[in-house]
Structure formats: C-alpha cells, structure tokens
Amino acid sequence: MSATVDRITLSVVRGVLETTQREMTLTLEKTARSSVFNTAHDYSNAIFNHRAEMILQGQDIPIHLGSLMPAMKAVAGYFADDTHEGDVIYHNDPRYMGSHILDCCMYNPVFYQGELVFWTVCKGHVTDIGGPVPAGYNPDAKELYAEGLHIPPLKLWDRGKERKDVVNFMLSNMRARRDQEGDLRAQYGAVKVGERNLIALLDKYGVKTVQACIDELMNMADRQMRALIGSLPDGVYEDSALVEDAGHGYGDLEIKARVEIRGDACKIAISSPPQIPYFINSYAGNSVSGVFLGLMMFAQVDPPYNEGLYRCVELDLGPKGTLCNAVEPAPCVNCTTTPMETLADAVRKAFEKAAPDRAVASWGHANGVNIAGQDKRNNEEYVSMILASIISGAGATAYMDGWHACGPQCCFGALTSGDIEVLEYSYPIIIHRYSLMTDSGGAGKYRGGSGTVWEVEPLDHEMTVITFGEGRRFPALGAAGAHSQLDDAKVGRLVVNTPAGEKIYRENVVVTIKPGERAANHNPGGGGYGDPLERPVERVVDDVKNGIVSVAGAKAEYGVVIDASTLAVDQDATRRLRGQRAAA
Amino acid sequence: MAKKYRLGIDAGGTFTDFVFSDDERNVHLFKSTSTPDDGTLAIDAGLQQISAAVGRSVDDILADTDLCINGTTVALNALIQFKGVKVGLLCTAGHEDSIEIRLGHKEDGHRYDAKYPPARMLVPRYLRAPVRERIRSDGKEHTPLNEDDVRAACEMFRREGVRAVVVSFVWSVLDTSHEQRAAAIVREMLPDVFLSVGSEVFPQTREYTRTSTTILNAYLGPVLQGYVNGIDAYMRKRGLHAPVQYFQSNGGMATGRAMAQKSVYAINSGPASAPQAGLYFAKPLGIDNIITVDMGGTSFDITLTQGGRTNISKNIDFLRYRIGVPMIQVETLGAGGGSIAWIDQSGLLLVGPQSAGAVPGPACYGRGGTEPTVTDANVVLGYLHPEHLLRGRLKLDRKAAIRAIEERVAKPFNMSVDDAAYGIFRIVNNNMVGGMRRVSIERGYDPRDFTLVGAGGAGPLHITALAAEMGISRVLVPKLASGLCAFGQIISDVKYNYMAACPMRLDANTDFGVIRSLYAGIEQEAIDALRAEGFKDADIVIERSMDLRYVGQVHECTVELGSMEISSDTFREIRARLDRVHKQLFTYDEPESLAEVVNIESTVFGRVPKPEPPRYPEGGIDPAAALDHQRDAVFPIGGRIQRVPTPVYDGAKLLAGNTVTGPAIIEEETTSIVVEPGWSAMLDPHGTYILTHA
Fold first, then answer.
1. Of A387, A403, A414, the CB nearest to B118
2. Sheet with A463-469, edge to edge strand ranges
3. Closest chain B residue to A31 measured between Cα atoms?
4. A249-275 tens-digit pLDDT
5. Cα distance between the two ends of chain A
6. Residue B319: helix, strand or coil by DSSP?
7. Which residues of chain A does B504 touch, with a Cβ-Cβ cutoff of 8 Å?
8. Are A296 and B112 inside 8 Å of each other by CB?
9. Is B49 helix (H, G, I), strand (E, B) or coil?
10. What's the half-sphere exposure (Cβ side, CA atoms, 13 Å) at B324?
11. B204: nearest CA in chain A?
12. For residue B410, what is the DSSP state?
C-alpha cells in the first residue's frame, strides 16, 4: 500500500464507493416508471476506473455484473479517444459483450480536471425493446434479429448535449414509450448521482490518494481469492449439468466445466453443444457472468467485490458457435437465466470436487412470466416482466435450510419482487395469490427453500402472458446425498384456468387470458443438503405444521409418519420406516 | 402553579436515568438500578433520591411537575430477545406469506454467505389465517368479506392461545370496511386479545410494509401496554396531574394510551433523543456535525447528525423487520458495561452481546454474578473507583471483579489479569468501532469531520480510545453524559405525527378543499390533545409535508411545506418544490410531467421552553485544586500495557477552564472520564468537557 494511504482513508474511500453504488441503485429505484426498475430491482450499478476495470461490484444482480466487465471494455474500446466529458453512452448488444438486449446499459465517463477517472455504469432490464413479442421473450425467434432492437455502443449525450433524435429513434422502437422514457431518465439520474459523489470524493482526497486506495482494494480482493484457490489441492476437476428442453425440441443439453488448479491460480474451461436456433444461447459476455456466479457460490468470499477477485482466473468459454460462446445470428434473449444458471451449476460442481466440504445445493432456476396489454384506465399500452413470478427457493447449505422465496439462482437474493399493491397500482391486474408452495423445497437433512406461486387475473382487458426460463422438469440439484421423491412438487410450471378447464404448460409459450381467467406461475424450490433421513423428526413436524411439507411428503421424503388430523408422530412406524430406508 | 418541574426518565436495560429540572432551570441527574419486571420500582427509587435532594416529598414534587417524560427500551428489548406475545394474523386469502417471502430479497452484505439464516417469523405460518375477501386497486370491492373465515380463524387463535391479533388486508387503505368488520368480530369473539388493524397502524399503500409494521405493533403492544399501565397507575397514585408523555422513535412524544396502541412507534424510543441533547451541548461551541455514542449497561447506541440534521428512516428493515413508520436513525449493538466476556469454541475471546444486565449484574456488583463483564474490566484496570460510583451508593467489589476475570479469561489464556482485562476493554471497543463505522464511513461520512459526543454511564470510560480508533480528534462529554437521553427528552417538544393516504393528481384542477380537510382532520386531534395538556395556541406549531411523485413513478419524494396553506394559489409553489427536491436528490427533474399526491403528513408540535445552560465558575488552566487522589491505572504506553500512577480529579471541584492532561481520570457522580495519554480535557463554562488529541 502506498505510504500516503492510511487505513482510515482506505476505509472511507471504500465506504464512499459502496455508498455511491447504493445511491445510484436507490436513484434508479425511486425515479423509474416500470415495475422492473422501481420495485423489482432487476438492474445493477457498478463503478469502473479509467482502465475500464470494475472497482465496485456491489450487491446487485450477479448475472448483470459479471458481463459488465467485458462489456465496459468493449464500449470504452469502441469510442477510445473519442470519449469526452459530458458523453453518455448506451448499449445492449450481445455482439459487444452485452448480455441480452433487454439489459440496456448506460455508461457515464467521469472526468476530473480534464482527465477520465471513473465510469459510472447502470445496467437495467427494460420492459420492452421492440420486436414481435412484447417484453422481448420471443420463443419463435430463430435469429437475434427477430428478438428486438440491437443497440451497439451509441452516444445519447454528446459533450453534455442530449442527442434527441437518437433518443427518439430508440424510444420509437419500444412499446410503452412513456415508461421507457421515464426509465431512461432514471438511468441517467443514477449515473449522474454516482458522478456527483465521486467528484466530491476526488475533491476531498485528490486523484492520487483515491486511486491508490482503489488499487489496494483490488489487491485485497485478489489476495482473498488467491488464498482460497491456493488452499485447494492442485489438479483437474470436472463436472457437468443439464439444460432442460423447454419446448425447443433439441433435447436436454449438457454443459461441462473443467477446472484446473495450479497454486493460487485456476483455469476454467467450458464446453457446450453447438448453438441452436432458440433463445437460450449465451454470448461471451453473458457466459462470463455464469462462470463467475458459479465461482462465487463456491468461494463465498467476503467483500470487497471488484475485478481483482478474478485476476487469478483464466477463462476459456469453448469454441465459438457453441451454446456458451454463441455468435451471430444465434438468438439469445433467454440467456440471462437459461443456460446461465446451468453454467453456474456446472462450474460450481467442478470446484466442489476440489473441496467437497464446501458443497452447497442449487437454487431454483428462473421460470417466469412477462405480461402485456392495454390499460383502459389511461388507454396506454403496458408491458412488464414480473419479477414476483420468478421467486424460487434457495438451496440448502451445510449449515442450514435454504431460504424460502429468495431465488432464482441467477439473481441470488438481489431481486425484490415488489409489493403487490404497487404492482396492482401500476398494471390493470389483480394478484390472487403470492405464496409459498408446499413440498417444493428439495428434501435433505437441510431442506431446500420453498418456491412460490404467483397467480394473476387481468382486469377489464385481455392480457398476454409470455413465459421464459426452465426448471419445469428438473428439480434444483441437491448436495451431499440429498434426494427427493415428490419431484413434481419441486418444479415450476404455468397453470392457466379458463372456462375450458385447467391447462399446464412446461415449455415457453405466449398465451392470452381474459377477465375471469387466471394464470398461476409456479416456481421451483431449492435443492436439499444431506440425507433426508437424518433430518430431526421435530423439524419435519414443524414443517408439516406450517404447511411447508405435506403429511404425504413427510412420509415419502423423510420417513416420518404423522397423523394428518392431530399432527402426532407415530414414533414406531417412523423408526421402522427410517430403518428400512436406511438399509435399502 | 407554584413550581414547574420537568422530569425525564429513561429506562435502560441496566440503569434508569432521571433528569430533573426545577423552576430555576437547574438540571440534576439521578440514577437507579433498572427493575425489568416492574419498572415502577426503579422509578420509585429514583424519585426518593430526587426527594432527598430537593427536600420535598415525592408526592409534592410530582404534583408540581408539569411535564414527565419516559423513554423506554422495553419494546426494543422484547424484540431483540423475541419476548413479544403470540400473534395471529388475519390476511387476505392467497397473501398469507408476504411477511415470509419478504419481497424475495436477501439482505445486501450477505449475498454469497452460506451461513446467514433467514429472519425468524414473528407470526409462524400456521398462525396466518387466510380470509376470503378482496378490495381492488381502485377501491372497489372484488370479493365480499367471508365472515365465517374470520370466525374460524378466531376459534383457531383461541385454541392456540394467541394473545394478539392482526387484521391486515390487501388495499385496506382504500376501503377500511373489511378490516373494520373483521376487527369487530375479533373483538366480539376474543375480547381479551390485543388487536391491531393495518389501516389504523400504518395507513399507507404497500401491503408488505403495512402488514409487517402492524405485526410488530401487535407483537410488542401487550408488552408495552403492561409497562405503560404500570407507570401511569404509579404516577397517578403519587399525584402527577399531567399524563406521562412517552418518547417515540421519531423524536416526539405521546401519552401512554396512544403509545400502547402504537407500540411500533416506541421501538427505539430510548436513544432517539440523543441527537437533540448532543446538539444542545455542541451548538454553543459552533459544532453541528456530531456522532453521539451512548454506552449504558446493556447496549451501545450511535446516531449521526450532520449540519444539525439527523436522518429519519421510513420503510426500512429494523432488526430485519420491515417498519413503515418514521424513526430517527439509530445503530444499536449489544455492548455495554454489563456485556459478558466469554471464550467461544474455537478459543476466541468475545465480548457480548449477552449482558449481565442489572441482575445479577457484573461480578463486581456482588449480586451473585460470576461472569466477567466490561465493568469488571474497568474496575480492574483502575478506571472505575470501587467506592466512588454514585457517590458511594453503588459499591463495587474489586476482588470479585479480579476473581471473575482471572477464572474465566486469564487462567484459560495463561495471561495476567491486567492483560486479560485490557483485552476485554479492547475487544468491546473494537465492537463499538465497527458500529460507528457503519453509521459513518460505510455511509460515506468521514468521521474526522465530526465531533464525538460521549454519553451513557460507561461511554466516557471508553471515549478517548474510541475516538482514537476512528481518527476523531475532538470529543465532548457533558457532565450530564450518563443521562444524555433523559436530558434530550426534557428539552424535546411534544410532538404528534399523523399521516393519511391521499391519492390524487396535483394540478390546477385538483380539489384542494379535500386535501385541506384531510390535513385539518389529522391535525385537529393533535391540537386538541396539546390544548388539553395546557399548550397555548401560540406554542402550537404545525409542520406539513406531502409525499409527491411524477405520474408513473411508484416512490415518492417528501416535500416539506412548513405551515403553508394548501390551495390553488400555492399549488405552483408545491409543484416547484417537488421538482427542486427531485433534482436535488436525483440530479434531474421533469417539470413538464404530471405530478400526483400519495400521502400527506403533519407533525404538530407543542413548543417547550428549553432550559438555559448552566454556568460554572471560571478558573485557570491548572486543575490541581480538584485533584482528589492518585491511583494505578492501566494504559498502553510505548506499545506496552503498563500500570502507571494516574491522577484522579473530582469533577465537582473542577472550574471552567481547568485543563486535565492524560493519563488522568475525571470522576463525576455518575460516570468517569478516562483521559488517555495524548489527550487533554478542559471544562467549558456550560459544564461540557472538551477533550482534544494533541
């Protein structure tokens, strides 16, 4: 550490960076128009230094943050010397390391005394980006051109002047323009609040001291990750995980991860099947997120989180044209959830082979809905992803049950699903149910967290419901010998109730429902940890009393026999059943 | 009235503090040992002390007391220790789980932490009863109330022995009829339960926040009610005419009856008055950036005030539970004189959060405590004199302190008792520094820009060590330090805070009469109450605010309106303030966008005259005349822990201007200030010690 940097200043700088990032996030949340931004937190903010290195990752969505590292470099490289004070750059294109086109990023270069010092960056999931299907999730797209508007690095503000024609061009290609315009202003507010705080920091301590502190923060992260990797035995560790066929007909697809550990560094190599003409391909930028999420689920290191964490990691995403290293024209709108969560599983499981005591169960994968229609209250079109519809259960760990309602894995607890009154105020809908699902958590000594069900009915109009994701056939992976019996209760699905009857969808679809009809999106629970027969009987009883596990589930999965009316345990029958199961 | 006394009583986990101001505006501090099972015993003991000091009977004193204020940590402690009552929830069918789903979020700071447990449910799932009913987002009824569901739930609650019931339905803020009818059924079927209704406790949009806030209210209500009933009955019996005012987390006061019904407003009642008191002492010195730290027997409370303003939080997670009502931002941790030092499984020495409390108390109290505490360490280190605390009324057993530290720490670690005691001192300091960093550094405030105000009975013992760790070079310790919060209470105004949902567009066509009558409605109750308490209209001040936003946003900006009348004449000004606040907060505004009102809020103050600060006689720099004795105390000198002869001054004899150079100890009646090497302490004419680092 530089002699001019004392521990207090270092801590203050770190504190200011974290506060700045939090205030950027708060700005976006407080000012935005769409529920995805203002209640659901499907956005992430980060701060980069003049070298386009991420110096603060924050606590936002993992899937956003990993890909921002290569994306920032692609954007900064694109304009290079043509970057000026007052410029604001926008971008969503996977061909420039973007994730999917719904995740629109704003990049604000922060100049101090004429010099580029920082970038404040705001990445958010806009509710629509044009294309044939509202909300962007077009299961019929065979190429990325059919998914919506692609924005290569583009200046929205040029030396402080808004390029109104360019902004207008962009907004003219998106549904629900008022929301999109408000959200764009909100992103602008976020990056400018970040700039304001950082300038105050530079005024106080000077560029040199601040940069010295930041270098040290990155070194701290680097040391932390190296200490962990260095503690693992050298060697090569491999594992894989399956992406389920969500209606595309190409079958289940296997993603393999190979981790080579040498000293305090590692090389992660991915191999995956050829890309397919369905929206689950992942371009390189997005795949970086998947790999790093798998690594962080394994590493569980403490903050500070910044690019220093990954210095000791060499990454090979496999040949171009494959599922995890897709190239034009592969469609990819679903990539931030599928196959990225499976990619994270494969990487994490490979690392766990080097340290089985660090194993954790998978969280439920995302399977959610977008809704769109005409709001008769103001005669405006509305469209939104509903984050409340993708809240799954967290995986159990060696220490405890998984959290209920905390996933999906790609967001890792960073989302907020939004208050149902706020959602009903924003859209012409009535939410009949938002609750935990019985028997959805994976069985284990430590049980996986419960998934949720979100049930909606449109008011006074016809509503389009568009699903995405997976986790409707394969339950979340358990760990350390966990196994379940009632798999169907543990996976997601869309259940549509109309006068014609009930229909269950396990693939990605676009359906329309009317007032009086309901769509209920079920989400998977998290994986369990350890042998369910080792779960103490009283904890199983407690779960049954609270409706987290059914009486049938207690018997089938935990070998605990409970009287349905009194909730009394039949101790003899339980002992017998658990004995038989253990012997089997 | 012949005499007008004012009495502030702050009931902490270990001590109950009394600040008493007489009609000549002299302020006195008294302390008694807290009696958690019956708070009135501690109050009685304190009143006896006041009686002895004033030379009048307790009954006479109370009869002449026009303002008696009580701050309490009863609700906070019940929440920390999960000692609230068994609560049943009646909620809209399909929405039983909102408090457990918690918006699907895991707290920041624990993103990849595999050991961080979910929050404990205050109402377990089996006590959350679905009721078929539904109001829509436009206020229309979608499904009528199913009264059978309510009755069946009440039967279940009765079987389960539920003591409090919450009724909280979706969109009840737009139509309260379902909640009201369900509440009536609960009252009829379960007349003895404590009942809280969502639209009454927190009448604002957001079901999760409202339900969670109301559950906390019910969980803590009966606990607080028991406390308040006891105090009120005692005070009435002893002749107090005015109702006891209870301090609230938002910095205001309310009567016991109002308070028990809205216990969630009382959660952090104790420490919320610290910023007011800190500013009272700091402002004459031209200081308005302060961090107050209050270390009592059980807990350590931190507040940060910048430019004279202390942040108020709304809709935040407090101890992991969502609370909608406004609260002064206080960071609290389990570190106090009573905090117990212990060795964990891995062999690490830890201090707290368990506290020996008042009973059995630290080992040195000689009440049967055998665990070593921070106070025991302070006695061993020579910082606390065994005979001088509370003018000798609380005698400390030094041998018992040594024994506890020797047995539990020094022997297992094979170290000297001094080293073990200093280790306890350092570890508890480190815990407190962590909390101070959270409120300052982690929120982007540089602690070096602030003056530290040391408070609580134990705070001044640690204050120079804490300041050094934080890089703070100036510290204030008022002579009243150990009763800072009680003092803050008697200089606070009476304050009632009311809010109402008021969803409507804000433009030239707005029916401002509706808004005016809403304001008038919520303010009248407060004005009547203040008049009944004897406030003249000239001393009643109204401060209004409105939560406004641009149409399409779902979060609001709070716009302060002062006492502005709301009309078509002022609407442009109101609108301009929204743009201004939005720009200030978020760097941009949207003057051409439509705006809407969400909530209105009114704070009605009854202005209370502030006591004049006392004046102490001036003397020179030399404090020699106040030197009481010299004793050995332990300090780190030259990188080594050493026992050195240390001058001890009698605070009562120090004159303004006297300057004490560390290492030294200043003994006040209710606290001792440890002046570490490198620091000096000067008494200013108003009775505040100003400590500075060379």
1. A403
2. A380-386, A367-375, A463-469, A510-513
3. B553
4. 999 999 999 999 999 999 999 999 999
5. 60
6. coil
7. none
8. yes
9. helix
10. 24
11. A421
12. I
